[in-house]
Each structure stands twice: as C-alpha cells, then as structure tokens.
Write a structure and sequence with these properties.
Length: 288
C-alpha cells in the first residue's frame, strides 16, 4: 500500500490533544455528545484527541466554548494550535494556571520510562512531603502559603504513577550534593534519605548517586529528564527546567545527545547497591 508517510505528532500537538481530552472529561461529555452539540465530526474529534491531526482554529474554539475553558486555558491552547507543527517547545511559566495543567505532569503520566538526572534536588517523584514543602518555599520565596500547599499536593499526587497497575519505570541519578544539602533541616533530610532507600527496593525504581569525590562529570551542566512512551509511534522527549520556563526537546539530535549524557552518568555513578549504602551513611549523618 502506498501513500504519504505521516509525521509523528509534535510535543505541542500531543499536549493539545491531552488537554482537550482532560477538558472533555471534566465537562463529563462523551464524544457523541460533543458531536451533537458542536457539529464536529466524531472521526475528526477522535483524531484530534489522539494527536493524529491538528484541529482547525474554529473547531478548537467550538470545543473550548463547549467545555467552558477559562481565558488562561483558551490562550494557552490556541497558542499550541497555532504552532502545533513546530518541533521543540519552550513553555513560559503561567502562574495563573493550576499545577495540574502544567505540561510536564501530563507527559510524565503518559510515559513508560522516566530517566531523571538531578544535580541539586531529589527528583520530584522521590520527594517526601516535608522535603517538597521545604524545596518549594526555598525556590519560591515570594509564594504564599496556599500556593505552596497546592504545589506540594500536586507533587505528591504525581507519585501515584509509581504505584499504578502498570507503573512508570523510574531511573533516577542524583549528584551526592542533592542529598547532602540541608533542605528543611537534619530531620527532614534524614526522613528523605530513608524514603530513598525504601524506594530503591521497588522493582520499578532504580536509584544511583554520583559521589562528590568523582569530581567533574557531564551532569554538572544541569538537570534533565528523558521520557519514552508505550506507543512506539510516540516520539521520545527530553525536558529541561529553565528560568524561562519548561523546555521540551524532541529532535533526534537532542534526544541522542541527552541519552548519551545519561549513559555517561550511569557509568560515573555508583551502582544501585553502593548508592543505597551511601544513602545509609547520609541518613546516619543527618540523624546525629
């Protein structure tokens, strides 16, 4: 069978599709009901929600009207639609959007494997509630208590991906500095180190530490996350948190570069067993 090969969906198109699925679910509408109320063809709606095709602007506006999207959501999703064929994505922070709508959380929930390198923080999926609260307060010193608690709750809820029926496979590599830094004080860090040791026993979790004594290593340029997805047609993705916002990379060149970097970090780091031993000494030291 001949025909033009379809390009894989871009990160923007995938995010747009996921947000539209979520909005329809929150509006408690079936696809058939959406078709009846908007006139959008059922096959077209299916293709939009599966990121197979890009919605026309008027179609998207009709859907957003029906779903009761907020002005912030409408602005965000129309921007996605207008550039949905472009690769890569720097998503500026939008403080008015609830944490649940951030793009990273959506991709993480859909991923099969997350490979996360962190130089200064414990990975979000491995944070205790008290550590998360201390980190958020430290990183966002002007945030009010309500905003801090909302972010803490969202961070803890994210961790459900590790215990769902087909759990996310997490491979986390941390610089030793991430577990030595006194975030929240000795008691908080001792609790965090114990939690990491417990997580390391789970079959879906692999933890490695890069000792300070290793000196310079490729990860010193900054933290990143590499994700792949259950559907082989869905491209892999790299996420980098920057001061300007969420940076999503999907070109083959960038994916290869970050995969190679993670492999180098795996080689530099202690193996999982030795990493747990080092965590044990950290835990003992924090408890003194």
């Amino acid at each position: 069978m001949s025909g033009k090969r379809q390009n894989p969906p871009t990160v923007r198109l995938r995010r747009l599709a996921a947000e539209l699925r979520l909005l329809r679910s929150q509006a408690d509408l079936t696809r058939e009901e959406v078709t009846a109320q908007t006139g959008v063809n059922g096959v077209t709606l299916y293709r939009i929600e599966k990121a197979i095709s890009r919605p026309q602007k008027r179609t998207l506006q009709a859907l957003l009207d029906l779903y009761g999207a907020s002005e912030a959501q409408r602005k965000d999703l129309l921007a996605l639609q207008s550039r949905s064929q472009d690769q890569g994505w720097l998503r500026p922070y939008h403080s008015e959007l609830p944490e649940e709508y951030t793009a990273y959380i959506g991709f993480e929930a859909e991923a099969r494997t997350v490979r996360n390198y962190e130089s200064l923080f414990v990975p979000g999926l491995a944070q205790t509630e008290r550590y998360a609260r201390a980190v958020i307060k430290g990183v966002l010193p002007t945030a009010n208590q309500e905003d801090v608690e909302r972010r803490v709750q969202a961070r803890i809820e994210r961790q459900a991906v590790l215990t769902k029926p087909e759990p996310l496979q997490l491979w986390a590599i941390m610089d030793e500095a991430a577990v030595r830094r006194m975030v929240g004080g000795r008691e908080v860090m001792a609790e965090q180190a114990r939690h990491l040791c417990q997580l390391a026993e789970e079959p879906q979790v692999t933890l490695q530490l890069i000792p300070l004594a290793k000196g310079a290593h490729p990860g010193m340029t900054g933290s990143f996350v590499h994700m792949d997805f259950p559907d082989p047609q869905i491209p892999e993705l790299v996420y980098v948190d920057t001061p300007a916002g969420d940076l999503f990379l999907e070109s083959e060149t960038e994916i290869r570069r970050y995969k190679s970097m993670f492999e180098h970090l795996q080689a530099v780091a202690l193996d999982p067993g030795e990493s747990v031993k080092l965590l044990g000494t950290v835990c003992a030291g924090q408890s003194d």
